[in-house]
Structures are given as structure tokens and as C-alpha cells.
């Protein structure tokens, strides 16, 4: 057995290393070991494992066959002890995998909430910008009936004639751009598709007194201050008032005769 002394001594050393490693493991539980300590224990087992296997194979080669059974039993006993340590490592590693998955799920959820918040803020901002744009284009001046035509035409262009928004949305835009008497007429309507045309028609019936509006437009022409000079600016201003008022009168109804209004 003398030629195998080195391998026998190595086996005794490895047994001592295995016992020392088991003592290190006994200081921890799989459920509360830190990642740093887990990595250290993994390194110990991974270093010890191949050495034990290699020593077993070397002993089988140098010992007589009748000694193989004893060497095999000793090897199996060491392997069983190693399996206990490997089970410990597997349990601890699974705990860290589950923890990492939980953290990743929380991060994904946080990212999802952030994305939803950003999208919601974006939509709210776009809605405010759109509302402001429509307000600027369609603000109804309650003080002058003649402004109904301007409001109506701009609102029709900006909202009424659109096909990409619902009638309920159109009603919301209409109500948000009204004030005074006009708002009082339609503010009680619920924001529903069926109510939009009713509210729109009601405003037309209330404000689109065509002859009354026409008389107001004629007043704009007649009340325009006389020119103090014959400058190009004064002539252009007078021409604009006349042209705009005449065009507005004609847009009311083909049956409206400007000559009749002037009588």
C-alpha cells in the first residue's frame, strides 16, 4: 500500500477540508444567508468536488481490488455529505432567484405606472392645447349678436364638421366655448352623442335671427366713421368693413336683399 500513501494522505486531507466546509455552512441558513457568503460557500464546494472525485479515481488505480469496496464506501460517504451542502446551495440560490424576479416585477410595474402617468399627462396636455385652440378660434362674444356668424363659422370649421371626434366630444367643446345667455341655454345638457345636435340647433334657433343679424351688419357699414383723409390705409380699412359686412350678409340667406335692409 506504500505507493498509494500520497493518495491516502490526500484523502484524509480532503475529509478534513470537507468537515471544515460543513462547519462554515452550519453558521448560516439558506433563507437568510447573504449573497457574499453564499458565493464564498459555493466556491468552497466547487473547489472540493473535483478534488474528491480525482482522489477516488487515483485510489482505485493504485489499490488492490480487495480494497476497492472500502474506498468506495468512504467515497460514497463523502459524496453524501457533499450533496447535503449542494442542496443547501440550491435552496439559497433559488431564494435569490425568486428575490431578483420579485424586484424585476416591481421595476416593471413601476415603469408601467410611470409610462401610464406620462401618457395621461400627455393626453391631458394635448386636450388643453386643443381646447385652447378651439377657444381662440370659436370664442362667442355674448355682447354682439352679429358675432354669432363668426362664432358659428369658426366652430363649424374647427369642430362641427370634423369626423374624427364623437358628437359627445363636440358638445363638450361647444359648451366650453360658450358664456352668458348662450351657455345658459345648453349647459344643462348631458355630454352625450344624442344631445349635440339638439343643443346646436337650439343655439341656431336662438341666435340666428337672420334679419336682425343683417341689420347689425348694415349698421357696421353705416356707422363706420367717415374718412378724415384719402390715404391708402383709410381707403383699405373702409373697403374691408364694407366687403366683410356684405359677405356676411350674403352668407345668411340668398333671400336677404341688401337694398331692402337699407330702406
UniProtKB/TrEMBL annotation:
<protein>
    <submittedName>
        <fullName>Uncharacterized protein</fullName>
    </submittedName>
</protein>
<dbReference type="InterPro" id="IPR005312">
    <property type="entry name" value="DUF1759"/>
</dbReference>
<feature type="coiled-coil region">
    <location>
        <begin position="75"/>
        <end position="142"/>
    </location>
</feature>
<dbReference type="Pfam" id="PF03564">
    <property type="entry name" value="DUF1759"/>
</dbReference>
<keyword id="KW-0175">Coiled coil</keyword>
Amino acid at each position: 500500500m506504500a505507493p498509494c500513501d500520497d493518495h491516502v494522505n490526500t484523502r484524509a486531507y480532503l475529509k478534513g477540508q470537507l468537515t471544515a466546509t460543513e462547519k462554515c455552512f452550519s453558521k448560516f441558513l439558506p433563507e437568510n444567508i447573504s449573497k457574499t457568503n453564499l458565493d464564498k460557500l459555493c466556491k468552497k464546494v466547487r473547489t472540493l468536488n473535483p478534488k474528491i472525485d480525482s482522489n477516488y479515481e487515483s485510489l482505485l488505480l493504485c489499490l488492490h481490488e480487495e480494497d476497492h469496496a472500502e474506498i468506495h464506501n468512504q467515497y460514497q460517504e463523502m459524496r453524501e455529505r457533499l450533496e447535503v451542502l449542494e442542496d443547501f446551495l440550491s435552496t439559497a440560490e433559488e431564494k435569490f432567484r425568486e428575490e431578483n424576479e420579485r424586484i424585476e416585477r416591481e421595476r416593471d410595474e413601476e415603469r408601467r405606472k410611470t409610462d401610464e402617468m406620462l401618457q395621461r399627462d400627455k393626453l391631458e396636455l394635448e386636450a388643453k392645447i386643443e381646447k385652447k385652440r378651439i377657444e381662440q378660434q370659436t370664442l362667442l362674444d355674448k355682447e354682439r349678436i352679429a358675432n354669432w356668424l363668426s362664432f358659428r363659422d369658426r366652430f363649424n370649421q374647427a369642430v362641427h364638421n370634423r369626423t374624427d371626434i364623437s358628437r359627445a366630444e363636440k358638445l363638450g367643446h361647444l359648451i366650453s366655448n360658450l358664456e352668458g345667455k348662450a351657455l345658459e341655454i345648453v349647459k344643462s345638457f348631458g355630454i352625450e352623442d344624442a344631445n349635440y345636435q339638439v343643443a346646436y340647433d337650439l343655439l341656431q334657433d336662438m341666435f340666428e335671427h337672420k334679419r336682425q343679424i343683417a341689420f347689425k351688419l348694415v349698421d357696421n357699414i353705416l356707422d363706420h366713421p367717415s374718412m378724415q383723409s384719402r390715404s391708402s390705409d383709410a381707403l383699405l380699412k373702409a373697403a374691408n368693413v364694407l366687403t366683410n359686412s356684405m359677405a356676411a350678409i350674403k352668407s345668411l340667406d340668398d333671400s336677404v336683399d341688401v337694398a331692402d335692409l337699407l330702406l
